[in-house]
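Side project, low priority. Logging it here so it doesn't get lost.
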Amino acid sequence: MPMKKKTVRRPKKALKKADPSIQFSYKQSAMLGRYVTEQGSIIPRFESGLSQKQQRQLAREVKRARHLALLPFTQTL
């Protein structure tokens, strides 16, 4: 019988906690830019420390800002 490969469990990193009173708006492109990477993708929830509700609101507002050309879709090289 073949030997089972042991899996290594990595310790979980401490998550950053964002302020629960943060409200996102598509008009605040500077604040939304902090949650967008250089390639134009939205930072995931476990890195930003946002709640699920805040992350959904962030995604909606970033998409609105992109549509109105307040934020770029991608970074130009």
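Brief comment: The chain has one domain: 21-77.
Revisit when time allows.
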